[in-house]
Write a structure and sequence with these properties.
By secondary structure, this protein is of the alpha+beta class. The chain has one domain. It contains three helices and seven strands; from the N terminus they run ββββαβββαα. The strands form two sheets. The chain has a five-stranded antiparallel sheet. The longest helix has 15 residues. It is globular, with a radius of gyration of 14 Å.
């Protein structure tokens, strides 16, 4: 099976591959495969910190042009990454079943969306 990837423009106007597992809705992609997430973190220079305690998560939002990458880590083996575009329909995302996106993750995605939509 071929890896799904999106081309994102990097710092030097070069197109870099962002690896994804699936599209949730237009403007919202998910990656849950740890090897793909680690590859994305390397390519886009995303540095994650460890969670403070066992019942907490660490997250980082990285803005790249008109998208944001939300990386969530609860342990070295439990990672998830979302690519959020400025074309995400927030109301459609809020209507997704709660078992798909927890309220906490939904709030983080909204923060990432705001960053993706912000023009520098």
């Amino acid at each position: 099976m071929q890896d799904l990837k999106l081309g994102l423009e990097g710092d030097n106007n070069q197109i870099l591959d962002y690896l994804v597992d699936n599209i949730i809705i237009e403007g919202l992609y998910i990656t849950a495969d740890n090897s793909k997430i680690r590859a994305n973190c390397t390519v886009f220079n995303i540095r994650m910190t460890d969670p403070i305690s066992d019942n907490q998560i660490a997250h980082r939002i990285t803005k790249i042009n008109n998208v944001s990458i939300l990386t969530i880590k609860s342990s070295d083996e439990n990672l998830v990454q979302f690519l959020i575009g400025n074309d995400l329909d927030i109301e459609e995302m809020k209507s997704l079943p709660r078992e798909m996106l927890s309220r906490e993750v939904e709030n983080l995605i909204q923060q990432a969306y705001m960053m993706a939509s912000f023009k520098l």
